[in-house]
Amino acid sequence: DPLGRLQRTNMFVTTTTFGSTQRAEGAARLVRGVHDRVSGTAPDGRPYRATDPRLLLWVHVGLTDSMLVAAQHYHRRPVDADGYVAEMAVIGEAVGVVDPPRSEAALAEVLDGFRADVGGEHARDVAGFLQRPSGALPPAAMPAYLVLARAATDLLPPWAHPVLGTPDRVPALRRLDSLACTSLLRTLHVVLGPRSASVEAAYA
């Protein structure tokens, strides 16, 4: 259920970002409880647990960097990168991450340390599915999803494309993708209304 998992991750991010302290702490407890039950054996025979400190750190820095890069590219106002990374560190610690990075520079350094671990057949399969999740979404939702997927792919670092098998589009196409995504995000902003009203309704 990859899209279901993505939706649950989105709810966690939304809750810890816009929810009350009580709701954020509850979301963190829920995630820790799920992680305690997840374990298995990788295809190469390695045992794994969701509570593994390095796996937790990878998920944390991947999510933090992705959100930061997207905000830097699409937010209308300047983004306090160091402040965001520091705030995300608090959330990371709440779900069990040990010593998460607390600045943009530290985040980049930690991410660079994972480059040798990224890739493989399964990673390429996931990247391919996320670019075009055939049959997983209603047909009416696909055009908007594909706009977001192209824009997200364009924000990947150059080294990731050959590793994940994602297209490294030429600058002209990336600009078109960015314009399409900006237009879509502005439309969603109009449809959903001001953030304060949306958040207040979500947590009423």
At a glance:
67% of the residues lie in helices and 3% in strands.
Question: How would you describe this protein?
Answer:
Helix 1 (2-18) packs antiparallel against helix 2 and helix 7 crosses helix 9. The longest helix has 22 residues, at 53-74. It is built from 10 helices and 2 strands. With 204 residues, it is mostly helical.
Mind sketching the topology for me?
Elements: H1 2-18, H2 21-36, E1 39-41, E2 47-49, H3 53-74, H4 81-94, H5 104-112, H6 121-131, H7 142-154, H8 160-164, H9 171-192, H10 195-202
Antiparallel strand pairs: 1-2
Helix pairs in contact: 1-2, 3-4, 3-5, 7-9
Which features characterize this protein?
67% helix, mainly alpha, disordered C terminus, 204 residues
